[in-house]
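Title: Comparing notes on inverse folding

I've been comparing how different people in this forum approach sequence design from structure. To keep things fair, I'm posting one structure and asking everyone to reply with a full sequence. Here's the target:
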């Protein structure tokens, strides 16, 4: 079977041409499978369906599958209205039997690291084996999960070719990194350029044709390795610059320099400077994880990735430093930090999202608890929160919680945490924003 994706007319779905079919003659929309319908996979599935492609998500999680099938997004990377708009073209399943019916199969499964920072390809390889067992000639397989350079044309290709089919000849293989940014109201999948790298030129061409159906710009790299490296470079850039400004904030505090005023002054330069803001630490699914894939891969080649390693250490140390600032601020209280009521505002990894993965609030809360503080939290997006296995009580009444705490620490500046609300704090530590309230202590 030799299927050729043809360029669609504006607003129309791509069509397929096979043996005995006139090139460009309309057949049915591309059948798309998205393996892994979490924060990155579901937006892709919705975008493919919105472009007119019959799409099905595959996931091991019964809850995610059920939520999608009743039209309720399980996360905050897809709006309910977006999911409702494609209800006739998108569904989900835990049964992979349908994979051999699909023309495009995109893998969007997690690629975490373990407690020692070593990449864990287990979920991705398991998903790849599932695809392998149902791989048919002519299919296009795209990896969107973050991986180190050489993984797609290495172990992923090897596993898929255990099917007896040859990549680049019998089926097509490409890599295109996800660029999902939860909570970003300006950039989504449709207007964020898509990077694509193929095992061969034909692989890249087919993957690019698929993404052009719903992305306004597609950038094709020389191979899969450049596309893999680009994703890690993007997040290492953010990791290193956040580490720079986090360490700079500590120096400013020691020198009695207003770090926020300094950043605003430097940001007036119209060239050569991009402002980054300090905070309580760096969390989420990308920045604390993705650079470690290249750190590990480079170490295997005997080449240390020193900048990323040091940036990781600086960012990991920020929650401990914020806890030390809390202890300093409470030093004038009888008993100091021990027994003090400390309220954490916003325990997610970024403002106005419900994701707590790698949130700096966890090590911060753990450190404050170890110092003897009575820690509670408030977060409109989080029902329960634990720090290193210890449950942290929730305060639901924001105004009362702020007024009753000996110290309020703003971990993430959700929209709900307006200045007039924070002004009611006895003492406020805000590492995530400028000192705008009378009681605020800057980083």
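Reply #1:
Here's my take.
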């Amino acid at each position: 079977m030799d299927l050729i994706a043809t360029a669609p007319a504006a607003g129309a779905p791509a069509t397929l041409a096979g043996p005995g079919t006139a090139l460009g003659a309309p057949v049915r929309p591309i059948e798309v499978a998205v393996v892994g319908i979490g924060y990155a996979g579901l937006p892709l599935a919705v975008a493919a369906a919105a472009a007119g492609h019959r799409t099905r998500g595959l996931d091991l999680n019964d809850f995610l599958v059920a939520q999608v099938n009743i039209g309720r997004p399980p996360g905050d990377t897809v709006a309910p209205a977006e999911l409702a708009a494609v209800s006739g073209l998108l569904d989900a399943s835990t049964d992979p039997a349908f994979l051999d019916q699909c023309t495009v199969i995109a893998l969007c499964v997690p690629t975490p690291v373990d407690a020692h920072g070593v990449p864990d390809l287990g979920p991705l390889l398991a998903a790849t084996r599932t695809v392998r067992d149902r791989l048919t000639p002519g299919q296009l397989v795209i990896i969107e999960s973050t991986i180190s350079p050489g993984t797609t044309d290495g172990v992923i290709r090897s596993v898929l070719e255990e099917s007896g089919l040859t990549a680049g000849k019998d089926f097509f293989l490409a890599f295109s990194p996800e660029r999902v940014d939860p909570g970003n109201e300006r950039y989504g999948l449709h207007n964020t350029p898509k990077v694509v790298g193929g095992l061969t030129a034909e692989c890249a061409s087919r993957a690019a044709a698929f993404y052009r159906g719903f992305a306004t710009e597609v950038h094709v790299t020389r191979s899969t390795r450049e596309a893999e490296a680009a994703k890690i470079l993007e997040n290492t850039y953010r990791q290193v610059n956040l580490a720079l400004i986090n360490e700079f904030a500590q120096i400013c505090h020691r020198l009695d320099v207003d770090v926020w005023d300094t950043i605003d002054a430097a940001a007036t330069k119209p060239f050569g400077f991009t402002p980054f803001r300090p905070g309580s630490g760096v969390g989420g699914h990308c920045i604390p994880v993705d650079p470690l894939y290249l750190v590990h891969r480079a170490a295997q080649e005997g080449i240390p990735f020193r900048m990323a390693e040091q940036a990781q250490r600086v960012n990991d140390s920020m929650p401990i430093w914020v806890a030390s600032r809390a202890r300093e601020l409470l030093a004038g209280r009888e008993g100091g930090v021990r027994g003090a009521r400390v309220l954490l505002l916003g325990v997610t990894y970024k403002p106005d999202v419900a994701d707590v993965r790698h949130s700096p609030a966890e090590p911060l809360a753990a450190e404050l608890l170890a110092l003897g503080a009575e820690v509670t939290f408030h977060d409109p997006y989080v029902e329960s929160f634990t720090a290193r296995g210890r449950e942290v009580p929730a305060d639901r009444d924001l105004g009362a919680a702020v007024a009753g705490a000996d110290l309020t620490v703003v971990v993430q500046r959700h929209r709900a945490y307006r200045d007039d609300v924070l002004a009611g704090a006895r003492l406020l530590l805000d590492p995530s924003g400028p000192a705008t309230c009378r009681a605020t202590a800057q980083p």
